[in-house]
Amino acid sequence: MHNDDYIASGVLELYAAGGLTQAEREEVEARAAASPEVRVALNEACAAMELYASQYARSPRPELKNRILAQISAQQQAPPAQGTKEQEVVPMYPVREASPYKWMFAASIALFLISGLLSMHFYNKWQDAESRLGQVIASERLMAQNVETASLRLQQQEIALSVYRNPDYKQVRLAGVEAHPDANMTIFWNPKNSQVFIDQMRLPAAPAGKQYQLWALDNGKPVDAGVFSEVNSSLNLQQMKAIASAQAFAVTLEPAGGSENPTLEQLTVMGKVES
Under 8 Å CB-to-CB from 253, ≥6 apart: which residues? Predict the structure, then answer.
């Protein structure tokens, strides 16, 4: 029998409870001497039995102690009778065979220990199943986020495609001013529905606390078209505020959140609308 099956059989608990014959006890001791695993399990069973016995032990009655001491004293004082055979030792209490309750007690201890092992086993299984369930839920959430991201990208690409193919949108190229010769940006503006989209851009990184702002120049008057981030994907369009009329567009660097009027000293790019 394998060590695990031997330990789970309850024979070690019966050994600790004194419910085995001499031959069976010798077999357990031999098995424990040959296997460290069985020896550790046997020591644990004996320790559990000792703990149980110490918790439920009862002291003998005082009158029983006095009775035993009186009988021992009487036997020591009485001289042996001459010419008689050696007196047989008569036990104070009749020797009885092992009570069935002894086996029931040992079996209950074994069942208690086995049930504890089974409870720990199923608890570990439950913990493992709960961990796997959490991983599945996290995976499903990640998949849902990926699907949502992919759907958003597809929607943005569809918008970009509709803008590129619509002849009503005018493409306006904004070139860098003298202070920023490498800067440039492209916007699409539809005078019929007033929609404005920022497409590709190449602008210097805005310092902390600053933000770029788009302006539409209508008869020389600047009109706020909204603030935006200079970080933009070539596949995405940033929609800005509606502009009904404009002859040119420009971008300035403003405090975060935008300004009511453009800071001309921070002009970055500018371009005219081709008629």
Answer: 206, 210, 211, 212, 213, 263, 266, 268
